[in-house]
Specification:
Elements (H helix, E strand, L loop, with lengths): L1 E3 L8 E9 L5 E9 L5 H15 L5 E8 L2 H9 L7 E5 L2 E2 L5 E9 L5 E4 L3 E6 L2 E9 L7 H18 L4 H4 E8 L2 H18 L10 E6 L8 E9 L6 E3 L19 E5 L3 E9 L14 H17 L8 E8 L5 H12 L4 E5 L9 E10 L9
Parallel strand pairs: 4-5, 11-12, 17-18
Antiparallel strand pairs: 1-2, 2-3, 3-7, 4-7, 6-18, 8-9, 9-10, 10-13, 11-13, 14-15, 15-16, 16-19, 17-19
Helix pairs in contact: 3-5
């Protein structure tokens, strides 16, 4: 993994890029861009887009996520922007000031070119017998409860999966559940997800799906919005789940249903999708209540333990999304993260975690070399 700092000239944007190139010559890039100077939202968005164009080709863009500080007022400006290749995820999670918007973008550079299809909600990339489907902004507002909204959006996603010959249990690798006012609406989302998973054969005796359930203000009537990642054609021999029982408990111990992490092996690389991870112990208890710095240390320890269970290390992480309950903690947490992890791409946003006692949560993805000639290429 190479960590790069692109030269943006006079643009007031911090840029961090991670690049992995596999043995087959296909490169993957994770890019995070954050404005460093105060300005109106439109101006910062313009800086972000110019910086993005300077760092990477639009033809290689697979997906991007914008973290926005006030979506109710910013959505009109976003919708007025020209469309780009690659699906766009929009979340109401304020980056740390002076940024009003930040970007995480994922690019895939294939010397043979990308075979892709784009729709309003899904970008699909096909190569080597596999199709990777990135879906964003799923919501259903025909109900006003988080429980029913979650049921309906999973019904919507299940119907699409079925139309493509896929299902939740075999093909979905990752979800993000963005919950408005999480202290009020999380329980309803969790109950609906648990019921949906059980109905689709996802139980403690089988497996769940890697996920983050995190607060976001969508700027609309939605109480729950979902992004998801599915792989068509993936086989069971490619997939392992991350377990570190001496460090942190299975999620079902405290009544929720997601995997801590999922590793997917390909011919020349392995992806490890790390779910939202916090300062938790092997009994499911919060560790270091009230101390965000020590919670950060335990969170990173837990992530490293999960990665080691599938032959990876924290140094293999390509990016970090860092969720903070209290934005005033950002300078300390940023400093500690950079001291520990150097130039790895990372973004810091304000977003409450599912338990009030958790002050920081982190997710991301690792990429490691892997040699298995019988597996399909990424």
């Amino acid at each position: 993994m190479d960590f790069l700092t692109p030269d943006l000239g006079n643009l007031p944007v911090n840029a961090r890029l991670a690049r992995f190139v596999g043995a087959d010559g296909v490169a993957e890039e994770h890019l995070i861009l954050t404005p460093t100077q105060y300005a109106a939202f439109d101006q910062q968005l313009d800086w972000i887009e110019r910086a993005h164009a300077a760092c990477a080709s639009a033809n290689t863009l697979v997906m991007r996520r914008l973290f926005c500080s006030d979506l109710a007022n910013q959505l009109p400006a976003l919708r007025a922007r020209p469309s780009q290749p690659g699906v766009l995820s929009i979340v109401g999670q304020a980056p740390t000031p002076p940024a009003k918007v930040a970007l995480w973008a994922y690019h895939m550079i294939d010397p043979a070119g990308l075979q892709r299809t784009d729709s309003d909600t899904t970008t699909s990339i096909t190569r080597g017998g596999l199709s990777h489907h990135f879906t964003t902004n799923l919501a259903d507002t025909t109900s006003d409860t988080s429980n029913v909204q979650t049921q309906l959006l999973f019904d919507q996603y299940n119907a699409w999966l079925s139309s493509q010959g896929m299902n939740l249990a075999d093909n979905v690798m990752r979800t993000w559940l963005f919950v408005r006012d999480i202290d009020v609406n999380y329980a309803g989302m969790v109950a609906a997800r648990k019921a949906m998973f059980a109905a689709n054969g996802l139980t403690p005796q089988t497996h769940f799906i890697s996920s983050s359930g995190i607060e976001s203000d969508p700027g609309t009537a939605a109480r729950v919005v979902m992004d998801a990642y599915a792989i068509q054609g993936v086989s069971g021999e490619q997939v392992r789940f991350c377990h570190a029982p001496e460090h942190l408990s299975p999620t079902h111990v405290y009544g929720v249903t997601f995997e801590r992490g999922t590793a997917v092996a390909y011919r020349d690389r392995q992806h490890v999708l790390i779910s939202g991870t916090a300062s938790i112990d092997k009994l499911g208890h919060i560790v270091h209540e009230g101390n965000v710095e020590k919670q950060l240390e335990r969170t990173l320890e837990n992530i490293d333990a999960l990665l080691r269970s599938v032959d990876a290390r924290i140094s293999d992480m390509a990016y970090y999304l860092v969720y903070l309950r209290d934005p005033s903690d950002a300078p300390l947490i940023r400093r500690r993260m950079i001291e520990r992890l150097g130039d790895a791409p990372m973004v810091f946003v304000t977003a409450k975690v599912c338990r009030p006692g958790w002050l920081v949560e982190i997710e991301g993805q690792a990429i490691t070399p892997h040699q298995s000639p019988t597996l399909p290429p990424f």
